[in-house]
Write a structure and sequence with these properties.
Cytochrome p450; 3-stranded antiparallel β-sheet; 19 helices; 9 strands
Length: 500
């Protein structure tokens, strides 16, 4: 037998082995009697070559539901669980959290220190960080930061006033992102970014790069499935220039504050106290210290999560208010009535009284959730209650927030924007985990108070002074950018803005 024949047999052998491996893996759910979406070799239910948003990847699996707790799916060769029953979702997020406390998200602290933040860490490191950072997001701390957010909102108003004379078609996505960038830059880093005055500021530029340079979903899924291999190949989540910018910014901020003994009521001040082991809980107990890399990673997480999620929530709210003028009118009326009792001042107390504005934010997060899938990983074998199914240790569980929020069995006429869905009566009549805008359970969004506060102040400032209408460039129905793990308008957010 010649060498060519041997090589050919070797190649055929490898291909056959791979095929048989995938064939066996793709029978995983069938062998266990679990309903599943038929996979396609070699990507499973993920189709990276097609222009499809990840909400639709899990959504297609979710749509196979038939009354059971979940539907099986495949990402490459890995079987995954997609939750379809709210009782099961509640078990995963809350009741059986001890089994599902990990997310299993890829991070690489050696090559990419910013990736080792609280959202992506698991086990004891997550638990320790959560315990240290939770006290920084109390209602008392939010009250301290309120004035800073309100000051930036006034600059936002002044920026729009120069553009709207008396009306103009504006791209609100960029303007809102500049507002939230300035807010987070100030609250997280104590730095006046001035993105509103200088659109190409460094903070705005690098904040944009975080999303635009995000690795392809196929790489993220492979890295999540094979993290040790990904680390050997030094796979990064964030590009080196983005990482260098934020690491240097945190380093210089800490150096300046410690040298000059500068104290501010912001997130960075709290992180510095943690770094120096000076922060105490309500019982006067030390919370423990953070390394510099841990401080930088948490500051970066606060920046990215704060500017991107609040910005998109605001623009989707404005979009729906522009399409629903009666709702916009009712919101403006509430703002006027509440502010008339507070000398026209947007304050911590007046904002809290604006119940309808808060319902608008909740309904926006229902229809356009910032995190379209919640991810958990089984830490041990889990017998699913009221079924014969067992989720094996290491299996990823996807909770498809977008699909749940758009399920007509949970929300009647889900494509209709209706803030009254979040009246106390309707909330009481729904399942406790029917709304997952901030996640739920011990791993819910630690900064939800800040996110709501920032979005409230921004919306109230805008609706108090401006009226929003659709224009020829407004995308109806909404289309989303493919290839990123967030919801973002594909063609920007163009609206007609008029002075009230």
């Amino acid at each position: 037998m010649d060498w060519l024949s041997i090589a050919l047999l070797f190649i055929i052998g490898i291909i056959s082995s791979v095929f048989l491996f995938f064939k066996k893996r793709y029978s995983y759910w069938k062998d266990r009697g679990v309903p599943f979406l038929k996979p396609t070799f070699p990507f499973g239910n993920f189709t990276p070559k097609k222009a499809i948003h990840f909400k639709d990847v899990t959504g297609n699996i979710y749509n196979q539901k038939n009354g059971g707790p979940f539907v099986g799916g495949y990402f490459f060769a890995s079987p995954v669980v997609v939750a379809t029953d709210l009782d099961f979702v509640q078990n995963v997020l809350i009741k059986d959290f001890s089994t599902f406390h990990n997310r299993g998200i890829y991070n690489n602290e050696v090559d990419d220190p910013l990736s080792a933040h609280m959202f992506s860490l698991d086990g004891e490191r997550w638990k320790s960080l959560r315990a240290k950072l939770s006290p920084t997001f109390t209602s008392g701390k939010m009250k301290f930061m309120f004035s800073t957010v309100a000051e930036v909102a006034e600059r936002f108003n002044a920026t729009l006033a120069n553009l709207v004379k008396p009306s103009a078609v504006l791209e609100m996505k960029d303007l809102s992102a500049r507002f939230t960038t300035d807010v987070i830059g100030s609250c997280a880093f104590g730095i006046e970014c001035n993105s509103l005055g200088t659109p190409d500021s460094e903070f705005r530029r690098y904040g944009t790069k975080v999303v635009s340079d995000f690795p392809l979903p196929v790489l993220i899924f492979l890295a999540t499935s094979y993290p040790d291999l990904a680390r050997k190949f030094h796979l990064r989540i964030f590009s080196k220039d983005v990482s260098d910018f934020f690491m240097n910014t945190v380093r210089e901020t800490i150096k300046y504050r410690e040298k000059s003994n500068v104290r501010r009521n912001d997130f960075m001040d709290l992180l510095i106290q943690l770094k120096n082991n000076k922060l105490e809980d309500e019982h006067s107990r030390k919370l423990g210290s953070l390394t510099f890399n841990e401080v930088a990673a948490q500051a970066f997480l606060f920046f990215f999560a704060g500017f991107e999620t609040s910005s998109t929530t605001m623009i989707f709210a404005l979009y729906e208010l522009a399409l629903n003028p009666d709702i916009q009118k009712k919101a403006r009326k509430e703002i006027e009535q509440v502010l008339s009792k507070h000398n026209g001042e947007i304050s911590y107390e007046s904002i809290k009284e604006m119940v309808y504005i808060d319902q608008i934010i909740s309904e926006t997060l229902r229809k356009y959730p910032t995190v379209i899938n919640l991810l958990r990983k089984a830490a041990k074998d889990y017998a699913v209650p009221n079924s014969n199914f067992v989720i094996e240790k290491g299996t990823s569980v996807f909770i498809p927030t977008f699909s749940i929020h758009h399920d007509p069995e949970i929300y009647e006429n889900p494509e209709i924007f209706d803030p009254l869905r979040f009246s106390p009566e309707q909330v009481h009549n729904r399942h406790p985990v029917a709304f997952l805008g901030f996640g739920d359970g011990p791993r819910n969004c630690v900064g939800l108070r800040f996110g709501r506060m920032q979005s409230r102040i921004g919306l109230v400032t805008l609706l108090k002074n401006y009226r929003f209408r659709p224009c020829e460039k407004t995308t109806i129905p909404m289309e989303f950018v493919d290839g990123i793990p967030l919801l973002a308008p594909k063609h920007g957010m163009y609206l007609t803005v008029e002075k009230v």
